[in-house]
Design goal:
alpha/beta, 3-stranded parallel beta sheet, disordered C terminus, 890 residues
Length: 890
C-alpha cells in the first residue's frame, strides 16, 4: 500500500518489477495493491502501467483474481464542501468511532486559502487529513478502496502481510497515514500483520520536504510507536488512537542521495531498493525480526528503527553470456583474417601491375636518353629505391602500424589462447605448441609467435625467418594433438594466420613503397622531357592509384568497427580507378579496331593487286613494288595490332583484378556480411561488458571477477562445456571463494559508517538485526564474524547477544543481500533529525499549524503532550526535544 506520491511510485515499481510477474504467475499468490494520492500524475502513471501488465498477464493465461490494484486520486468537490464537512460533521464521525472528543476544534476555516491540488497537498498535512476525512466518511471513496483491498488480501491461502509505504517529507502520505492505518486495522482485524516503511528526508531535499512538516510528523509518530506515549494517548483521547501497526521502520534517503548526488535519481533508486527489500522480507519469518527489535513488547524512547540494505551481485553468469558473445565474434574474425590474407594477395597483384608499368617506363626513359644497359637496369632501380630519403621513416611507420594492429589481434584471442595452459595433462606435443605460441616469463628469445608479433619494431628484419620456422613446426604439431579441443586448435590456427597476416602486410607495404619511389622518381625524370606528356600522364595515374591502394591496405589493418564505417568510401575509390581503367580500355579497344580496319584494307589491296598481276603481265614490275610496300605495311600493322591486343589484354587483366577486389567489398559479399556480423557481435559483447561494470544503484555492488575466474569461463567455452555450466559446476570449477569472501567483507565494513544506516555517530543500541540472503554454500562463519565486528561499535553490551544474524537462502543464484535493521534507536540519533529541527525552528506559526495531523481534532500539539508525559514520569528527557523552540501558538 502506497500513500502519497512516494508511496504510489513504490507501488508502481513493485508492480512493474519482473519478479512480481513471476509472483503473480505462481498459483498460490494473491496480490493486492492500493495507492492513494491527492496529486494525479503518479496515480495516472500507475494505472497505465497496470493496464499494460494486466493485458500481458491475461494474454499469458494468468487468472485475473490473482492480482488487484486499487489506485485512487482523492480530491474534494469544492473548498466550501470540505470546510462545511470539517466544521459540522467530522467531530460526530470520530466520536462515533470512540474518540473522547469533548472539545472539538475544526482546523480549517472558510477564510483559509486552498492551493491547487495538482501537485498534492504541498506539505500541508492538515489539509491532506481534511481531504482524507471527506473522502472516507462522507464520500466513502477511501472506505470502498480499503474494502476492495481487504477482499483480495484476505483471499490469500496464507496469512497476508500488509506493507504501508510513504514519505515523511511530503504532505499527503504523512498527513493521512494516522487515520488511514487505524481505519485499515479496524477493517482487517487484529490478525493481519501491518508494517509501515517511512522514507526519511535527506540534505538533498528542498527545505519544505525536510523541515517543518517532516519534524512534526516525526513528533507525532513518537506518540504512536512509543509505548508509554501511546498508552497515555489512548487513556486521554480514546481507544481509536491505539497504535495499529506491528512495526514502523524508517528508510533513510541519505545513502541514495550521497551516491547519486541528484534527489530525483535518489528517490527512484530508493523505490527500487524498497521493492528489492520487500522480496527479501518474503524469504524469512517476519515474527522473528519483529520480536527481536521489540515491537511485540513495545518500546519507549528507543522505538526508532532504521533499515538499510546492500545487494552484492557476483556477475558470473553475465560474464559467461558476454564471453559466449565474444567467442562468436572471435569465430567470425578467424574467417575474416583468412580472407584478409587473400585480399592482401590480390592487392599485391594490383600493385604489381603498376610496378611493371613503372619499370617499363623507366626502361623507355633510359632508352630515350641513350643510357640503357640491361645488365645495370636492376641495380639502377634498386638505387632509386634505396636513395629515397623517406625509406627508413616509412619502414618504421609501417612496422609500428602493423605491430599495433598485431597486438590488437592478439588481444582479441589472448584470453582464449591462454587456456591451452589449463589442460590437466599435456604431452610433449602440447608442451611444444605452448612454447612455440606463448612467451615465457622473463624470456626475450624470438622462439614464439607472441614475442615475435609484439616486438616487430625490434625484430622486423628477421621476423620472416623466425616466423617461417615456428609456423612450419606448428602446422605439423597442431593437427597431431590429441588433448587440445577443436575450438582450441582453431584459436591456435588463428594465431598462425595473424602472424601470416602481419608478414604479408609488411611485404605488401614494402612493395607499395618501392613502386611509389620509382613512380615519383620517373615523374621528375619525364617532367624535363616535353615530348613525353603521355608517359607523364600515365605516371600520374599510377601515383593516384597507389594512393588509393595504400588506403585499402590500411583498411585491412583497422578494427572491424572502423573498417565497417570506411569500407563504402574505399569501395567508391576502387570504382573510380575502375572507371579510369575502363576509359583506358575503350581507348585501347578503339585503337585495336582502327588498326584492324587498316589491316583489312591493306589485305584487300594486296589481294586486288595479286589478281591484277595475273591478268596484266605488262605491269608486273610496278605491281611487285606495290606488293612489297603492302607486305611491309602489313608486317608493321601486325606488330601494332599485337601491341594493341597485348595492351587490351593487360588492361582487361587489371580491370579483372580491381573488379575482384571491388566484389569483396560489395554490400552483399560474404566478406561484407561477415564484417557486419563481427561488428554487431562485438558491439553486443561490449554493451554486455559495459553493463557488468557500469555503476550500479546506490544499494547495489557488483564484484569484479578475477582474471583467473574469467579464464576458467573461457576454458569451459573452448572445451565445449558451456551448456553444462550449472550453478553447482560454476561454484565448484570457477568461483574463487577467497576473492568472494574478501569482497563481501569489504561490503560489510561499510556498515561501520552510521550514515549508511541513517544514524549519527551518537547512535547506541542494545539490538541490531541482520538478515543475510545468500546462495547455498557461499556464506561462512568468518563472514558472520565480520558482521559482528563491523557492528560492534554501536552496541552497548556483548555483541553475541545484541547483534542477531540470520542467514537464509537467496532466490537468486548469484546475489547476496545484507539487510541491517538498526533497532531500538532514538529519534534524535537519526541523521535527518538535526536539520529537520533547525528548519522547524525557523518556520512561522502558519506553517506549523498546517503541518499537524495526529490528534488535530483535539487541538493539541505533540510537543506539549510529550512534555506533559515526561514531567509526569519524573522529567525524563523526551526522545524528541524541541523545548528550546519558542512557539507562541503552543
Amino acid at each position: 500500500m502506497g500513500l502519497g506520491s512516494a508511496g504510489t511510485n513504490i507501488v508502481e515499481s513493485f508492480l512493474t518489477n519482473k519478479k512480481t510477474r513471476e509472483l503473480i504467475e505462481h498459483d498460490l499468490t494473491r496480490l493486492s495493491l492500493l495507492a492513494i494520492d491527492i496529486a494525479d500524475p503518479e496515480i495516472r502513471s500507475l494505472q497505465e502501467a497496470h493496464e499494460q501488465i494486466s493485458h500481458s498477464l491475461l494474454k499469458a493465461g494468468v487468472p485475473r483474481e490473482r492480482w488487484r490494484l486499487v489506485a485512487e486520486s482523492v480530491k474534494f468537490p469544492t473548498a466550501e464542501a470540505m470546510f462545511d464537512f470539517i466544521n459540522q460533521k467530522y467531530g460526530e464521525y470520530v466520536q462515533g468511532e470512540g474518540s473522547k472528543l469533548t472539545n472539538y476544534h475544526p482546523w480549517l476555516h472558510s477564510t483559509m486559502a486552498v492551493p491547487p491540488m495538482a501537485g498534492g497537498a504541498g506539505r500541508r498535512r492538515a489539509l491532506a487529513k481534511a481531504i482524507y476525512a471527506l473522502n472516507y466518511y462522507q464520500l466513502g471513496i477511501i472506505r470502498n478502496c480499503i474494502n476492495t483491498f481487504k477482499e483480495q488480501a484476505l483471499s490469500s491461502i496464507v496469512t497476508p502481510t500488509i506493507v504501508l509505504v510513504y514519505g515523511m517529507g511530503g504532505g499527503t502520505g504523512s498527513g493521512i497515514f494516522f487515520d488511514f492505518s487505524r481505519h485499515l486495522r479496524k477493517i482487517l482485524g487484529s490478525g493481519v500483520p501491518m508494517i509501515a516503511f517511512v522514507i526519511t528526508p535527506c540534505g538533498g531535499d528542498d527545505p519544505p520536504a525536510k523541515g517543518c512538516s517532516a519534524f512534526v510528523a516525526m513528533n507525532e509518530l513518537s506518540l504512536l510507536i512509543n509505548k508509554d506515549y501511546n498508552e497515555h494517548i489512548v487513556k486521554e483521547y480514546g481507544e481509536i488512537y491505539r497504535n495499529p501497526l506491528n512495526a514502523l521502520i524508517y528508510l533513510p534517503l541519505l545513502p541514495a542521495f550521497s551516491k547519486v548526488g541528484n534527489i530525483v535519481s535518489a528517490r527512484k533508486e530508493m523505490d527500487d531498493m524498497v521493492v528489492d527489500l520487500l522480496y527479501v522480507l518474503m524469504d524469512f519469518d517476519l515474527a522473528d525480526l519483529l520480536g527481536g527489535i521489540g515491537t511485540e513488547v513495545g518500546l519507549t524512547n528507543n522505538s526508532a528503527h532504521t533499515l538499510s540494505m546492500t545487494k552484492v551481485i557476483y556477475p558470473v553468469e553475465d560474464y559467461l553470456f558476454a564471453y559466449k558473445l565474444s567467442f562468436e565474434s572471435m569465430t567470425l574474425l578467424q574467417e575474416s583474417r583468412k580472407e584478409k590474407l587473400e585480399l592482401l594477395s590480390e592487392i599485391k597483384n594490383v600493385i604489381k601491375v603498376d610496378n611493371d608499368t613503372a619499370r617499363e617506363l623507366f626502361k623507355n626513359y633510359l632508352i630515350k636518353t641513350g643510357i640503357y644497359n640491361e645488365d645495370q637496369f636492376e641495380d639502377k632501380l634498386k638505387n632509386i629505391i634505396n636513395s629515397n630519403p623517406r625509406l627508413e621513416d616509412d619502414v618504421i611507420l609501417h612496422v609500428k602500424g602493423v605491430e599495433l594492429q598485431a597486438k590488437n589481434w592478439l588481444d582479441d584471442i589472448m584470453k582464449y589462447l591462454l587456456t591451452i595452459k589449463f589442460m590437466g595433462k599435456i604431452g610433449p606435443i602440447e608442451e611444444s605448441i605452448i612454447n612455440l605460441t606463448l612467451k615465457k616469463t622473463d624470456s626475450r628469445k624470438l622462439d614464439n609467435l607472441e614475442t615475435l608479433l609484439t616486438t616487430l619494431t625490434k625484430n622486423h628484419l628477421e621476423f620472416s625467418e623466425h616466423k617461417a620456422d615456428i609456423v612450419e613446426r606448428l602446422n605439423q604439431l597442431i593437427p597431431s594433438s590429441q588433448i587440445f579441443t577443436l575450438r582450441q586448435k582453431k584459436v591456435l590456427e588463428d594465431l598462425v594466420n595473424i602472424s601470416e597476416l602481419a608478414e604479408q602486410a609488411l611485404n605488401t607495404l614494402r612493395f607499395y613503397d618501392e613502386t611509389r619511389y620509382i613512380t615519383e622518381a620517373l615523374i621528375r625524370y619525364y617532367t624535363v622531357l616535353p615530348e613525353c606528356q603521355i608517359e607523364l600522364e600515365e605516371l600520374n595515374d599510377i601515383q593516384e592509384e597507389l594512393d588509393i591502394i595504400y588506403l585499402v591496405i590500411q583498411l585491412m589493418l583497422r578494427t572491424p568497427a572502423d573498417e565497417a564505417k570506411m569500407i563504402d568510401e574505399h569501395l567508391t575509390y576502387i570504382h573510380e580507378i575502375l572507371a579510369k581503367r575502363m576509359r583506358k580500355r575503350g581507348d585501347y579497344d578503339n585503337e585495336a579496331i582502327r588498326i584492324a580496319d587498316i589491316k583489312k584494307r591493306k589485305e584487300f589491296d594486296k589481294t586486288r593487286i595479286e589478281r591484277q598481276m595475273r591478268k596484266f603481265l605488262s605491269s608486273k614490275r610496278y605491281a611487285h613494288e606495290k606488293l612489297r610496300n603492302l607486305d611491309r605495311d602489313l608486317r608493321r600493322i601486325s606488330e601494332e595490332e599485337a601491341i594493341a591486343i597485348e595492351n587490351l589484354d593487360q588492361v582487361d587483366a587489371t580491370i579483372k583484378l580491381y573488379e575482384q577486389l571491388a566484389k569483396r567489398f560489395e554490400l552483399t559479399s560474404p566478406y561484407r556480411k561477415r564484417l557486419n556480423k563481427i561488428v554487431d557481435a562485438h558491439r553486443e559483447y561490449q554493451v554486455k561488458l559495459a553493463e557488468i561494470v557500469a555503476p550500479k544503484r546506490y544499494y547495489e555492488k557488483s564484484a569484479d571477477l578475477t582474471e583467473s575466474e574469467q579464464l576458467k569461463i573461457i576454458f569451459k567455452i573452448l572445451t565445449e562445456q558451456e551448456d553444462g555450466l550449472t550453478r553447482d559446476v560454476i561454484f565448484k570449477d570457477i568461483l574463487d571463494m577467497a576473492h568472494f569472501k574478501d569482497y563481501i567483507k569489504s561490503v560489510v565494513r561499510s556498515f561501520k559508517t552510521p550514515s549508511v544506516m541513517g544514524y549519527k555517530p551518537t547512535y547506541k543500541t542494545d539490538y541490531i538485526w541482520v538478515t543475510i540472503t545468500t546462495p547455498p554454500n557461499m556464506w561462512t562463519e568468518d563472514m558472520s564474524q565480520e558482521v559482528y565486528t563491523a557492528l560492534a561499535g554501536y552496541v552497548t553490551s556483548e555483541v553475541s547477544r545484541t547483534v542477531t544474524v540470520r542467514v537464509v537462502e537467496s532466490r537468486d543464484p548469484w546475489i547476496t543481500r545484507v539487510l541491517v535493521v538498526g533497532g531500538r534507536g532514538k529519534a534524535e540519533d537519526m541523521e535527518a533529525f538535526d536539520e529537520m529541527q533547525n528548519l522547524y525552528s525557523k518556520s512561522n506559526d502558519f506553517e506549523r499549524y498546517l503541518s499537524r495531523s495526529f490528534l488535530l481534532e483535539h487541538s493539541v500539539y505533540a510537543t506539549n503532550i510529550i512534555k506533559e508525559i515526561n514531567q509526569n514520569n519524573n522529567g525524563h528527557t523526551p526522545p524528541i526535544n524541541n523545548s528550546n523552540i519558542n512557539n507562541p501558538k503552543e
